Hints:
By secondary structure, the chain is an alpha/beta fold.
Amino acid sequence: MSHATIPSGFVKSAxxxxxxxxxxxxxxxxxxxxxxxxxxxxxxxxxEKHLLEFTQKNPGVVVYLQPRRHRPPKLVxxxxxxxxxxxxxxxxxxxxxxxxxxxLRTHSGNETVRLRKTWHTDTPSIQGPWTPFTNxxxxxxxxxxxxxxxxxxxxxEPSATEKLLRLAEQLRxxxxxxxxxxxxxxx
Length: 187
């Protein structure tokens, strides 16, 4: 699915959730399943093993069981904002259905949208766009190039390569003193 097909919008709070106390947005959960179909096995296992615990932990959510003969199993969630969401759960096991139920319980009920910002700028940095000359020495602004002074730049400390070569020489010298000669091990 491309971003062009996903609707876009701005951040909205569901009923100002978090401003006072938390209000679970899931209002009603309906479990539709077949009593004999093999595809409904996971949902029937969820009802037997996990549904009582879910209802005890979430007394604000009304749970309905709808046995329907020869119908594929699904979870139907209805939220406080009036939105309804259906998730088909054919051939899912009870653990996966637990995860889907938890997702529906913690979901806001708002439609999934690509978020847009309330502002736009062509240069996102308040310091301006970066250029290769951003952190260069300001003497370059008034220097006529090519410059003899700038081309004779001599570093004050050795480079990393020079440091490694010195370290390798020191190690060879120590090995020569310890072993009484060249050990032949490469550095």
